[in-house]
Design goal:
The complex is a heterodimer. By secondary structure, chain A is α+β, with helices and mostly antiparallel strands. Chain A has two domains: 2-73, Ubiquitin-like (UB roll) (Roll), CATH 3.10.20.30; 82-150, DNA polymerase, domain 1. Chain A is 37% helix and 12% strand. Chain B folds into three domains: 37-106 and 141-240, 2-Layer Sandwich (Aldehyde Oxidoreductase, domain 4); 248-323 and 383-459, Aldehyde oxidase/xanthine dehydrogenase, molybdopterin binding domain (Aldehyde Oxidoreductase, domain 4), CATH 3.30.365.10; 329-375 and 471-752, Aldehyde Oxidoreductase, domain 4, CATH 3.30.365.10. Chain B is 32% helix and 22% strand. Chain B has a seven-stranded mixed β-sheet with strand order 10-11-8-18-15-16-17, with helices on both faces. The longest helix of chain B has 28 residues, at 149-176. The chains are: A alpha+beta, B alpha+beta. At the A-B interface, helix 1, helix 2, helix 3, helix 4 and helix 5 of A face helix 9, helix 11 and helix 21 of B.
Chain lengths: 153, 757
């Protein structure tokens, strides 16, 4: 089975029922997407398939046909994605475990809506749980990221 | 407070050793410093000054921040303490968690373990406090908890930085042949202005580390702080926005296997019958081993990947023995209520409560029964650990709140000496008290004995995590108050029954030690509040239910904050006194408390009229040394009650990083609100009924209110930060709902009675 992840091609030998998350983490070594619930209830595993946010814990790898993007594929420590930059500037993370999923949901939101309202944020981010309660900073970081993106940074 | 005489006749958990003379016996060991654990593992051209500072010849400065980072920002604040005294910026240092070592014992975690409120500064209270600090060193437990890390580190870490600075300057003075007093420091260099000569710290580190440390060092005055007292950029933020592999679950080792566990869904029960054949034959499954630990019994599944292990765990067909505790939540609740009818230990006993109630007229009485459920921690990162047992040595990688205990218990479990165990502590995807437990590390260590030396990463499913916790105890309370002619309470009697978390923790960690005396955590947050009431009694009863219970972000104070402050609101209503005004009057002897209440009331514009369909409630709890008032505004909407806004005022004594403190106060309030709104762990057939976030959810972003926070520094002692925002959250919300709807809710979660938008 061939999988394109963060622009790289991988040949893997996986049970097609294996969730994409475990193929990424255990077979390919992409540990950015996190295991949180296994039932698409917390969003920690969020990645993009062809730009669409999906819960990789509940998507069988055999059903993945598009290109997969994880948190490791949107930016690097030297060249952060505007959403990551905003997360850094707003000092969003506490334990940080859910943040890869939060950021991937926020990236997808901003690709869809350049200047999201509070209601847009509520709708797009409601599936991403954070037990540290970083929601107020997530909201302000999304707004900052929107401004950074608009400014072309 | 209970009088000294009453206390002296009693023992109490943990403190018993200090009171009984452990202080004198242990004096020698207390004075003797622990060896510096950094000395055994120094890099080439690296020098170490003490357990907290290493400097390389290339001027790489490494600070060891030996407390567990679970999101609370402790690695940043501890590093700042050292950096401040070393006169270097945070961007110039590397911060590491350090090895497991007794040198990193936490003394402050036990200091408030005695039966004295934080504001009690009598000689007895102070003597016990310092005695318990000594016990902390004797036990030498390297632990993160009790909101104690900053208080424990504040002197130690600054002294470590100052001592290193002193030696670096002395060495530079010697090398340059000038007087130490003529040298200045900036950004990791030492400068001799007159000659223009300068040396990096690294250039003199080796010489400095060889010099005798100063007997005493002078710490900077607060006015000279450049970093402390100001918000800092967290050192862990970049790794956390880039998805870096920093958590236990991200550990990857050459030749690594994967695994999971399936433990008895009935605590302590053994399997009576188990058919492993189907699971063992599944693709990718390597081996299934029986697991026996002090936490319970079950199976470890070793496989080629985590998914194969999860599927095999599901396929194990096992029957488990009957539990030793009642089967259902209703039956457990009956045991708690029965316990309420037995004699408790009064941890506070002012005046003469029985006499005060003896002739109380009916119309002056307020009576209420309260209850809160068991709660899971539900950290975002499920329990996991990676272990390798090779050539008689065990390596274990995991996020944990007590590395020296991990080392000790895992050594015992696999039957080797402690010095053959290396603990690699990772960042934690949430802790909240869950990762002070050892179950996940023990399981991985035992499974690593069965892999022929290959490392195995053992990840629990969310379901296994939810159903095998050391839960926040359930509790019930029976309360009564007598009002005076002015509506103010003249007598308050609070009795609380709950399983003992100390006894439960000892059973898991040190089964050979039997608990002594009453468990103060049963009444924490109720007996130690800054109210003066002429007749005021708070007693606790340990209820005999053996479901595992343990630490949970503020534990007892999360229970009793709700009990005490809900009941105070009822007293105010019955006495027809504004609840803010009543608290200010009862708190008059504690100016720090009054100032917190005044501040939060002013922020929330308490007393100003609100539009129809909106209301506010307030609560106050002193916990872990910090005085916290919260006011919550709720609104009635067609979809249910919406939490609109939360105001928090907190007196932490000294605020070392206002940015992190504000984030923690909000975080802790959301943690408390999540529980109050909808969380409960219930039991049927001796098993936990909840399994995942669909039936044990937490607040979502669309439910999150707007927060406004004020940090005060009025009290002369420093308080904790990580937990103190939790206790007032639930009662402030329940009191707001009462103000909105007239419904007095005395049982959590609130969702049993009202719906939330």
């Amino acid at each position: 089975m061939r999988l394109t992840v963060d622009g790289q091609s991988f040949d893997i030998n996986a049970d097609p029922d294996m969730p994409l998350l475990w193929a990424l983490r255990d077979l390919i070594g992409k540990t950015g997407p996190k295991y949180g619930c296994g039932i698409a209830a917390c969003g920690a595993c969020t990645v993009h398939v062809d730009g669409q946010p999906v819960r990789s814990c509940s998507l069988p790898v055999g059903e993945v046909s598009g290109a997969v993007t994880t948190i490791e594929g949107i930016g690097t420590a030297d060249k952060l994605h505007p959403v990551q930059q905003a997360w850094l500037e707003e000092q969003v993370a506490q334990c940080g475990y859910c943040q890869a999923g939060q950021i991937m949901s926020a990236v997808a939101l901003l690709d869809e809506v350049a200047d999201p309202s509070d209601a847009d944020i509520d709708n797009a981010m409601g599936g991403n749980l954070c037990r540290c309660g970083t929601y107020p900073k997530i909201r302000s970081a999304i707004k900052k990221a929107a401004a950074l993106k608009t400014a072309g940074l | 407070m209970a009088s000294v005489g009453k206390i002296a006749r009693r023992t109490f958990l943990i403190g018993a050793a200090a009171v009984a003379g452990g202080v004198a016996v242990g004096y020698y060991y207390y004075r003797k410093p622990f060896p510096n654990p950094l000395e055994t593992d120094l890099g080439k051209d690296e020098a170490t000054f003490n357990p907290y500072v290493k400097i390389g010849a290339d001027n790489t400065i490494t600070i060891v921040a030996p407390r567990a980072e679970m999101g609370q920002g402790i690695s940043t604040t501890l590093a700042v303490m050292v950096a401040e005294e070393l006169d270097v910026g945070l961007d110039q240092v590397k911060v590491e968690p350090g090895p497991a070592s007794y040198a990193y014992y936490n003394a402050a975690i036990l200091e408030e373990g005695g039966p004295f409120a934080f504001f009690d500064e009598s000689m007895t209270a102070q003597a016990v406090r310092s005695g318990l600090g000594v016990v902390g060193k004797l036990l030498a437990i390297q632990a993160t908890g009790g909101s104690a890390s900053v208080r424990d580190g504040f002197d130690k870490m600054r002294q470590a930085g100052a001592a290193a600075r002193h030696l670096l300057i002395a060495a530079a003075a010697q090398k340059l042949g000038v007087a130490a007093a003529d040298l200045e420091r900036a950004n990791g260099s030492i400068l001799h202005k007159a000659s223009g000569k300068s040396l990096t710290y690294g250039a003199v580190a080796a010489a400095a580390a060889a010099m005798a440390p100063p007997a005493e060092v002078r710490l900077k005055d607060r006015a000279d702080w450049k970093l402390l007292g100001k918000p800092q950029k967290r050192i862990d933020m970049l790794t956390k926005v880039t998805g870096a592999p920093i958590f236990g679950i991200d550990v990857r080792l050459p030749d690594m296997l994967y695994g999971t566990v399936k433990m008895s869904p009935r605590f302590w029960a053994k399997p009576v019958k188990a058919d492993l054949a189907k699971a063992e034959k599944m693709p990718g499954v390597i081996k299934i081993v029986a697991l026996e630990t002090n936490y319970g019994h079950g199976f470890g599944i070793i496989a080629e990947n985590t998914w194969a292990a999860f599927k095999a765990a599901d396929a194990i067909d096992a029957q488990w023995a009957d539990p030793e505790y009642p089967l259902s939540s209703a039956a457990i609740s009956d045991v708690l209520k029965q316990a309420l009818g037995t004699n408790g230990s009064a941890m506070r006993d002012n005046g003469d409560v029985d006499t005060a109630f003896a002739d109380a007229p009916r119309e002056r009485m307020v009576e209420a029964d309260y209850a809160v459920p068991y709660l899971a921690h539900a950290t975002m990162e499920p329990m996991n650990a990676t272990a390798r047992f090779k050539d008689g040595a065990l390596d274990i990688w995991c996020g944990n709140q007590a590395p020296t205990l991990v080392r000790q218990l895992c050594a015992n479990a696999v039957g080797i000496e402690q010095d053959k165990v290396t603990v690699h502590t990772t960042f934690m995807g949430g802790g909240f008290g869950r990762r002070v437990e050892m179950d996940y590390a023990l399981c991985a260590a035992l499974m690593a004995k069965a892999t022929g030396g290959r490392p195995v990463k053992v990840t629990w499913t969310r379901e296994e995590d939810m159903r095998h916790d050391a839960y926040r105890p359930a509790a019930v309370g029976k309360f009564q108050a007598r009002l005076g002619d002015d509506g103010m309470p003249v007598a308050v009697d609070l009795k609380i029954a709950s399983p003992s978390m100390i006894a439960s923790t000892l059973r898991r960690l040190f089964p050979s030690i039997s608990p002594l005396g009453p468990d103060k955590s049963i009444v924490d947050g109720a007996y130690d509040q800054p109210y003066t009431i002429p007749n005021y009694r708070v007693s606790g009863v340990a209820a005999p239910v053996s479901i595992p219970v343990g630490s949970w972000r503020s534990v007892g104070s999360s229970i009793n904050g709700f009990f005490h402050e809900g009941f105070m609101d009822e007293i105010a209503t019955a006495g027809k006194i504004d609840p803010v005004e009543m608290r200010k009057r009862l708190m008059a002897a504690y100016p720090a408390a009054v100032k917190v209440v005044e501040k939060v009331a002013a922020m929330a514009k308490w007393g100003e009229a609100l539009p129809a369909g909106k209301a506010k409630g307030m609560a106050f709890t002193l916990s872990f040394g910090s005085w916290v008032g919260e006011i919550i505004q709720v609104a009635d909407t067609p979809a249910g009650i919406r939490i609109e806004k939360v105001w928090i005022a907190a007196d932490v004594g000294t605020a070392l990083d206002p940015g992190i403190i504000e984030a923690q106060l909000i975080s802790a309030a959301i943690y408390g609100l999540s529980a109050a709104m909808g969380q409960e762990i219930t039991f049927a057939d001796g098993m936990v009924e909840q399994s995942n976030f669909h039936d044990f959810d937490a607040m979502r972003i669309f439910q999150c209110p707007v927060f406004e926070v004020a940090i005060l520094e009025n009290f002369h002692k420093m308080g904790g930060v990580g937990e103190v925002g939790t206790p007032p959250a639930a009662p402030a919300l329940a009191n707001a709902i009462f103000a909105l709807t007239g419904k007095r809710i005395r049982t959590l979660p609130l969702s049993k009675t009202v719906a939330f938008a």
